[in-house]
Design goal:
This protein has a six-stranded mixed sheet, with helices on both faces. Helix content is 52%, strand content 15%. The protein is built from 13 helices and ten strands. The protein is globular, with a radius of gyration of 18 Å. Helix 3 packs parallel to helix 4.
């Protein structure tokens, strides 16, 4: 039988227990930043999981010192420079959110260290999100000079309320794992040395449960997210509109130079 995961080059897979698939983002030296290849695979893998009859639960984690350090700066520059790249990444960003929401199998995320960008999208949209105490969760869109698009508008207000969502999304204020649990952004916070064992234990409980009852409960609950689809689509469109403007150029330059950005305050808006 053909391995449905053999074609994936930027994600690693193992099966730590019966009917559990563990997906590991692994990009050495880049803290698992999502470059072109990983971004494509993160969007696509949830359809493969949904269709895999041997999998009841998926776990998403990051290799090494962090969960995901966000978008690769070369990818960001390509998006700003090339319409074709921008159009492809827009579709992948949309598919990533909807594919996680529509995957019938429950997903458990295990986040430690930096948790940013495309990895964070799947991490916070997971059905059970577990953060280590060391987790540093940041939505850095406005620091880059684009609107908080991908997942933020669809799920942050629902998880932690509008006031907290605006504070963290407008200011790019980081959250520790403990603070993320306190405000309801993640399901659980655990000590670092317990993270992967706890994620596996939760996945094993889900895998041992009534499959249709769990999957249908997930489907029904995710109608809250589907109902917010127009809000998400707007936020994503505005994010990608930002990639055509001057603010992302300054944001990108400042990140490369490791300095504070100097955005023009005289916006035409």
């Amino acid at each position: 039988m053909t391995d449905p995961y053999a074609a994936y080059q930027h994600l690693q897979f193992d099966r730590p227990a019966p009917r559990i698939l563990r997906i590991t983002m692994d990009r050495p030296g880049k803290l698992n930043a999502a470059g072109h290849g990983m971004h494509t695979e993160l969007a696509r893998v949830w359809r493969t999981v949904d269709e895999d009859r041997d999998v009841s639960v998926a776990i998403l984690r990051g290799a090494g010192r962090g969960f995901s350090s966000g978008g690769d700066l070369d990818l960001v520059e390509d998006m700003a420079d090339d319409f074709q790249v921008r159009a492809r990444l827009w579709k992948e960003a949309r598919d990533l959110v909807y594919n996680v929401i529509d995957c019938s199998k429950p997903i458990v995320s295990a986040m430690h260290g930096p948790a940013v960008g495309a990895g964070l999208v799947a991490g916070l949209l997971a059905d059970v999100s577990i953060a280590a105490e060391s987790a540093r969760i940041i939505d850095g869109h406005t620091r880059l000079g684009v609107a908080a698009g991908d997942h933020a508008a669809i799920v942050w207000p629902l998880l932690c309320g509008m006031a907290k969502a605006k504070y963290h999304l407008l200011l790019c204020e980081p959250l520790s794992g403990r603070e993320a649990e306190r405000i309801g952004l993640v399901s659980l916070c655990v000590p670092d040395d317990e993270l992967h064992d706890r994620a596996l234990a939760v996945a094993e409980r889900l895998a041992a449960g009534a499959p249709s009852a769990i999957r249908w409960t997930k489907y029904a609950l995710n109608n809250w997210l589907r109902a917010a689809g127009p809000t998400f689509d707007t936020s994503l469109a505005l994010e990608f509109l930002g990639f055509t403007g001057p603010e992302v150029r300054e944001g990108l330059a400042s990140l490369r130079a490791k300095r504070d950005p100097a955005f023009d305050p005289a916006s035409p808006l």
